UniProtKB/TrEMBL annotation:
Reactions catalysed: a 2,3-saturated acyl-[ACP] + NAD(+) = a (2E)-enoyl-[ACP] + NADH + H(+)
Biological pathway: Lipid metabolism; fatty acid biosynthesis
Enzyme class: oxidoreductase
Any Pfam family: adh_short_C2
Gene Ontology MF annotations: enoyl-[acyl-carrier-protein] reductase (NADH) activity
One GO cellular component term noted in the UniProt record for this chain: chloroplast
Protein name in the entry: enoyl-[acyl-carrier-protein] reductase (NADH)
Entry similarity comment: Belongs to the short-chain dehydrogenases/reductases (SDR) family. FabI subfamily.
EC number: 1.3.1.9
Location of the protein in the cell: Plastid, Chloroplast
Family matches, as InterPro entries: Enoyl-ACP_Rdtase_NADH (IPR014358), NAD(P)-bd_dom_sf (IPR036291), SDR_fam (IPR002347)
Keyword presence, GTP-binding: no
Length: 371
């Protein structure tokens, strides 16, 4: 997809993502209202009374469970799962961060790259340009098993206009419509478990909605929201039951963000509405969960197309409940959770990963407030 507004304002230089398994506790804690002398009975064979860990607070004795070897907790385990991530064209976007998080959890990674960006992306991979950003928490490099050319604006070859077919940027590539890509994946691997939609395009994103043309508006809807419907529609028959799909949205879907124009806010609103409907339909038809992540404003080469991304990042930092830099790997880790068995009952949801900015009703840096 054209990178002029890929994922709206939702891109940032990807940093090494931290998988949930790294946050495993070394010991679990049990709470008992028994006395320390009772901890050695047969009822609690693995509980030792260790002070101050076992100190009493308001009559409650906290004891540490010991004697168990190996890691404990709830690691995200995607081993044996295969993921297709649509919308990866470089190493600094959300798609890349999600791919790294899924790979760190053990998933096999396939990506779909916008056709005009394919050659540069594959060349950069081959020459090791992305090796540093491919590093996973264990020190290994993320392995992208296969890169597929993809233009999700077109469902089948019959939909492709002649001027696109003859465009030199598409020369040398074939089988890049949604239907053809899914057929290629089926022929190569048989099935997938995870589908990620991380692409968008709004050619008139810098125009106010009142100045947006019909063509620009419909292009934004087609590239940024219907493309998800199409991808899930075509991939669903080869998705294994119990699989999951996620997309990326932005708060402009439900709040007015002046400057985020060209129909992109409408496209994100459609994407969120479609998430709920697709969750029902894909859930009933294929036992597939469907969720979307609403991420805060993050900077990337693509996001700079809107023209004020740095101001949005500063606004978020000043006004969000958590006053810190937001990283792409935070979205990647959330995606890994959502597609894992740990989120087995979560579907049709919008999950906010924005330092809490969506909860704010006023800007605390407003002159009205600061005065």
């Amino acid at each position: 997809m054209a990178a002029s507004a890929a994922a709206g304002v939702q891109m940032v230089a990807a940093r090494p993502c931290i998988s949930a398994s790294q946050g495993i506790l070394a010991a679990r804690v049990a709470v008992s209202r028994t006395d320390c002398m009772h901890s050695t009975t047969a009822t609690f064979p693995k509980i030792s009374c260790s002070w101050p860990l076992g100190s009493k607070r308001n009559g409650v004795l906290v004891k540490a469970i010991s004697g168990e070897s190996g890691p404990q907790g709830l690691p995200i385990d995607l081993r044996g799962k295969r993921a297709f991530i649509a919308g990866v064209a470089d190493d600094n976007g959300y798609g890349w961060a999600i791919a790294k998080a899924l790979a760190a959890a053990g998933a096999e990674i396939l990506v779909g790259t916008w056709v005009p960006a394919l050659n540069i992306f594959e060349t950069s991979l081959r020459r090791g340009k992305f090796d540093e950003s491919r590093k996973l928490p264990d020190g290994s490099l993320m392995d992208i098993v296969k890169v597929y050319p993809l233009d999700a604006v077109y469902d089948s070859p019959d939909d492709v206009p002649e001027d696109v077919k003859s465009n030199k940027r598409y020369a040398g590539s074939s089988n890049w419509t949604v239907k053809e890509v899914v057929e290629s994946v089926k022929n190569d691997f048989g099935s997938i478990d995870i589908l990620v939609h991380s692409l968008a395009n709004g050619p008139e994103v810098t125009k106010p909605l009142l100045e947006t043309s019909r063509r620009g508006y419909l292009t934004a809807i087609s590239a940024s929201s219907y493309s998800y419907v199409s991808l899930l529609q075509h991939f669903l028959p080869i998705m294994n039951p119990g699989g999951a799909s996620i997309s990326l949205t932005y708060i402009a879907s439900e709040r007015a963000i002046p400057g985020y124009g060209g129909g992109m806010s409408s496209a994100k609103a459609a994407l969120e509405s479609d998430t709920r409907v697709l969750a029902f339909e894909a859930g009933r038809k294929g036992k597939i969960r469907v969720n979307t992540i609403s991420a805060g404003p993050l900077g990337s080469r693509a996001a700079k197309a809107i023209g004020f991304i740095e101001k949005m990042i500063e606004y978020s930092y000043v006004n969000a409940p958590l006053q810190k830099e937001q990283l792409a790997d935070e979205v990647g880790n959330t995606a890994a959770f959502l597609v894992s068995s740990l989120a087995s009952a979560i579907t049709g949801s919008i999950v906010y990963v924005d330092n809490g900015l969506n909860t704010m009703g006023i800007a605390i840096d407003s002159p009205t407030i600061t005065s």
